[in-house]
Amino acid sequence: MVPTEATPDVAFPSLPRGLAVFRQLLAFIGRLELLLAILALVMVVAISAAQAFLRYFFGTSLWWAQEIAETAIMICYFLGISYVFKTRQEIYIEFVSSMLPVRMQLVLYMFEQLMAVAFTASLLWLAYLFSPTLFNMQTPMLKLPAAVTFGPLIASSSMIALTSIYHLIFGIWAFRNRLPGRFLTDIEQHGLILAPLRQEP
């Protein structure tokens, strides 16, 4: 989704204080997620390079490398998903919705947030149901609780749910205040948690 220029000469009201603080908190978490995802990716590359070097030159390997690398990949993947969700850079198909009046687009936007909350809540509920089993199981090499490998999924699902709740509250506020704009992106750019890494002109 590419933010567009807002309607000129129109004063947009400031976010309510509580919503603005919520956005700042999520922005801080998002930057932390990005940092951890990058560090996890660097760790995977370093471990893989070390494994290749040791096997090629010394005929040996790091016995713990696979489990650590797999966990790091999970961290990179799921925290990366959460960050992408915060920047609103997931794939959208808006051909039909963009033809609707902007207030109807806002309704669909709020419905999207409700579906995201429902989906992530179901994942968290399933994780809760299986938590006794996960804590009783151990990884084969390092003997860590199996729940450790599911930690990134749980963290990511929780953050996506919180992000959707923020966007839902923002959508309700924008709908009630009749924020002007031809498209949803005209309105949504005033509530973005984090700017996309790259914006097309």
What key phrases describe this protein's structure?
single chain, 201 residues, mainly alpha, disordered N terminus
Describe this structure in words.
The protein has 201 residues and is an all-alpha fold. The chain has one domain. The chain is 67% helix and 0% strand. Helix 3 packs antiparallel against helix 4. The radius of gyration is 21 Å and the shape is elongated. The two termini are 12 Å apart.
List the helices and strands and how they pair.
Elements: H1 17-58, H2 65-86, H3 102-136, H4 147-176, H5 184-188
Helix pairs in contact: 1-2, 1-4, 2-4, 3-4
Biggest sheet details: none
Question: Helicity range of the residues?
Answer: 55-70%
Beta-strand proportion: under 5%
Q: Shape, please? A: elongated
Number of strands: 0
Question: How many structural units, i.e. domains?
Answer: 1
The assigned structural class equals mainly alpha
Segments where pLDDT lies below 50 for 5+ residues?
A: 1-9
How are helices and strands ordered from N to C?
HHHHH
Query: What's the Cα radius of gyration?
Result: 21 Å
Q: Distance N terminus to C terminus?
A: 12 Å
Count helical runs.
5
Mean pLDDT: 87
